[in-house]
Structures are given as structure tokens and as C-alpha cells.
Amino acid sequence: MKTVLILFLALNLYANIKQDMFNLYQNQKYEAVCTMGFDNFNRNSKDEEFISLYAFACLNSDYIDRLAIPVAMLKFSKESRSNSAYFSVILMQKKLLYHALQDNYDLSTLKLPTTDYVLSKVFDLYSKLKEHEPRAFYLFEDENDKKLTYKLYLSKDEKLNKMVIEEFYDTITIKRHVYW
Amino acid sequence: MLNTRDLEERWLKYKIKSYIPYAIIVVSLVVIILITSIFFNANKKEKELALVSEIKQEKQIENTQSVATTVIEKTEPKKIIVEIKKEVTQEVPKTINLASQNNLQKSSDEPFKLSPSLDFMKKMQHSSLPYHQNEPVQQQKSTSPVIEEVQDLGIEENVEIALVEEKPEKITIKRRDSSDDIRHIIKRFKKNNNPALSLFIAKKYYEMGEYHKAYNYALITNEIDRNIDASWIVFTKSLVKLDQKDMAIKTLRKYIENSHSSSAKILLDEILAGKFK
Questions:
Q1: Residues B128, B1: one domain?
Q2: How high is the pLDDT of residue B32?
Q3: Cβ–Cβ gap B196/A27 under 8 Å
Q4: Containing H/E element for B97?
């Protein structure tokens, strides 16, 4: 009887965490969902819905490196595999773009799939530049909306330089993404 | 007297016997290594052969391609074309490869776009909803808080009443697959008054083209929580769709003054530029 009760409580707690995360996600509290998922990952590591929710929350809150584990874990359903491929492309593009900005690595020869995520858009625009001298910052115009521009630069730091993408709409800053 | 010779012989035999297990181990290891190396070499050769044959096939395909292009360019006599046709018919699988290669070339010009799949969220949404039967249909009563909310915003009351009373009879409730889901969510919303749910309902109604209802639920959401961007955006978008563009602009401006929301600014720009109708 006790074991049944414990099992029931454990199941209830597990369901509550997932539901809480989903409610927070709907309220666009992506960072909170990402942190919550990170803290409870081991307990839910076999639930692909949980992992996907965690990964999308981390993606929306710019914690790209946290996508590495979901990329490896999402594999049992068609939807999961599709999302895994989507996350892996973004993760790879982030790493390549950071490498290019830091070490002037040439991206023009690469032809990678793209996504609708802001990092992919900037990656595509940067890779069209071909070999060039490193610049203090790069300004790119969105191909579909001329009012939308992206500013890409490295934020210098003593320990680690950070890659920053700022989105502008008619010179007004909409969003600032920081990656490292 | 000790027979030293006999003793030495026996010692030698003993010594040799003691080395036998080691010798057996060494010999067996050598044999195992030899067998595995032979096996791997055989595999490598097979792979190499397969690779060579693949390369040959590719070369043949390239040759046939080049021949075909020259024929098209020069428009030589029919004989050559017939020969090429024969070649193509003989190598049916190769032509398929050619087609796929062409497709690959085309796709390599335009980067392949991956898109996320969010169907799992719909499943989560459904699994989180309790099942209720005989749920009453949403009524027009929900229009009453509309007036209060607009008063809070400082927008003229007369205009608002006109908006609410303008086309009450034209609202048609369309029965769609998602209408059941919405009713379930409305039921849940009535229980816990969660602004996320009312915002979801507003968005759903907006997607379905029921702008009056979208407007009402966006207002209810704003009453509960004034800091949700998406709710204000659905609210103003619904106003525009209800031919209340001026009021939408006024509302957005007031909201931007308070919140400095960038997404609201973008929407305002779009409405002013006439991009959003």
C-alpha cells in the first residue's frame, strides 16, 4: 500500500513539473522553464515531450549550449528527430559563427541547412561575406524586411569574449541575444 | 652418491613443463592476431572494390551526361541520339541517380530550411484539459467588462459602446474541430482565471476570424494582467479587423507609453503604414 502511495505521489509530482513548465512556457517565461527543466532533467530524461519543451525554452532564452543534450536524447519519434536536427543545426551554426568571429574562420565555403531562428539568419548573412578582414561589428539587413537589421559583434571580456546579436526595427532595439 | 646427470635431466624436464602454459598462451595470441588481421584485410579489400566500382559508375554517368549535353548543343544526326537513348535505357538505375544528383545540386544552391515541430505541445495541451460534458455555449455576456476596460484606458466610452453594439447579429458561431477545445479551455479558465488561458482563447478566436470574441477575451486578459504584450496585440489587431483602426492606434500608443513594448511599436508601425489591415 505504501509503495503504491509513493508511486502515486511521485507520478503526481512528475506530472506537475511538466504541467508547470508548460504553463510557464505559454506565459513566455522561457528562462524559468529552461532552468526548471535543467534542474529536473535527470528525473524526466526519458520523456521526449519534457525534453522538447525544455529545449525550446532554452532556445528561446538563448541558452544554446543546453541544446546539446536534447539533440542527443531526442530520437524515438519522427517529431523528436526533426526537432533534434533543428536544434543541432542551430548549435552548430552558433559554434561556427563564434569561431569565425574569434579566429576569422572562413564560413563562405560552407553550405548548411538554415532555420527561422535569428542566429541562423545572421549565420547565413555572415557566410555570404566571403573572406574579409575582421571588423568591429557587422550590420546585416533582413532579406524579407528592409526595416529589420541585425548587428553582430564580439563583446570583449577578460575571461571570455561573448558574441552579441542585436535586432533593430527602424533603429529601435527589439532584442539582444548574447551567446558564448 | 647423488646421480647428478639424472637430476639435471629431471630438472630440465620440469623447467620445460613449467614454460608450457606460457608458450601456449603466446602461440594462441599470435594465431588470434593473425586471424583477425586477415579478416580485416579481407573486409578492407571488399570496401575498396565497392568504392572503385562506385567511382567507375559515377564516371560513366558523368560521361553519359557530357555526351548528352554535346548532343543537345550541336543537334547532331538522329543516330547519335538513338545511341544515347539506348545507353540510357540500358542503365535505368543510373538515370535515377542523375536525377537525384540534379536535385541535390538545385537544393545546394538554396539552403535547405529546417523548421521546428511543435505538435507535442498540442498533445500536452489536450492532456492537461479535464473532460467536461454539457458545457454551456459561450454567451455575449462577456462583452460587459469590455466597457470598463476601455474606460480605464481613457478611450471614449461612446465609441466603445458603438463598437460592441454595432454588429451583434452578424456574429456567426462556426463549428470547427477546434471549437470543442476552446470550450474546454473556457471551462478551465472559468475555474482558475488564468490569464494564459484567456489569452489562448483570444488568439484562437482571432485565428478563427471571430474578432468580437477575440477582442473580448483579450480585454479580459488585460483586466487580469496588464503586462502581457501578446494580449494587447491581439486586442488591437481585433480592433483593426473590426474597422476600429483609430481606436486601435490610440490604444497601442497608450500602451507603448506605459510599457515601451517593441512588438507593440512594430504593430503600430504596420497599422500606420497600412501593412496590417
A1: no
A2: 94
A3: yes
A4: helix B92-109
